[in-house]
Amino acid sequence: MNLARPLFAALAALILPCAALAEGAPAPCPPFEVVGNGSDLVLVPGLGSAPAVWDGVRDSLARDYRLHLVHIAGFAGRAAEGDPATLIERTKAEVIRHLDCQKVASAAYAGHSMGGFLGLALAADHPDRIARVVVVDSLPFFPLIFNPAATAELAAPQAAGMRAQIAAQDDAAFAASQRMGVQSLVRDPAYHAQVVDWSVTSDRATFAGAIHALMTTDLRPRLGEIAAPVTVLAAANRFAPRERVEPLYRSAYAGLPNADITLIEDSYHFIMFDQPAAFETALRAGLAD
């Protein structure tokens, strides 16, 4: 008698019902911190960043808002989950699941960089859940930074090359590239080490996949689906002067003619670090009813 066959059948009888139950069970609530009191405000960091990017305004905002601090899976020390190619869709779903878990019908939203991009997508997908959006230094199509005539098709080879290059780097090479890159992202050197640490403690495949998704996803055709008021904060500096930045943003957001575009001078990409006072003033203005 072959004992392996009945033993396998017995194990399958035990395991398969458990697997079926797991598949039918609701997903767990996301591990997002909730602090403060007041109307609900979702705060989402950018590519490879931690929720601590909001620390400069956290305590102040928590006096007036109930903050929902999103930590994107695979970024800045949080374990990666799922296929890197689906990060955008999975993160949108996780934000909505968090609101459901917290019994929040509708919330304001502020996102930096990739977080701002996610806010636009969420507002288009769920107009009943996102009450207003503040986008911090982000565009509805990232390749416009390099080429105002860019399309998803034209950007696809460059995006694939960037993803492959990042994935192929060893830890030392990736860290070196991040130390170099941060100098054009944060003007204040006091924050350089922190931003680099967030990147190097991110899952590399998730990081590379997110860049590819941002380079090949054009939200401009969907801007007209956004009903929520949108405020866009854009950084301007001597390398990216107002006369170049303002037309770029106004053209990119032409599908949202009522969007409020506010330029903040003498700042690089991390406006909250380079111009903290001006940042909080503009953020609060964008969140105001």
Q: For the largest beta sheet, what order do the strands appear in spatially?
A: 1-3-2-4-5-6-7
Number of separate domains: 1
Strands, count: 7
Instruction: Summarize the amount of helix as a percent range.
Output: 40-55%
The amount of beta strand, in percent, is: 5-15%
Distance between the termini: 76 Å
The SSE order reads HEEHEHEHEHHHHEHEHH
Describe what this molecule looks like in 3D.
- The chain has 11 helices and 7 strands.
- It has 289 residues and is α/β, with parallel strands linked by helices.
- It has one domain (33-287): Rossmann fold (3-Layer(aba) Sandwich), CATH 3.40.50.
- The chain has a 7-stranded mixed beta sheet with strand order 1-3-2-4-5-6-7, with helices on both faces.
- Helix 4 (114-125) links the parallel strand 4 (107-112) and strand 5.
- Helix 5 (152-168) runs antiparallel to helix 8 and helix 6 (171-181) packs antiparallel against helix 7 (192-200).
- Residues 1-23 have low confidence and may be disordered.
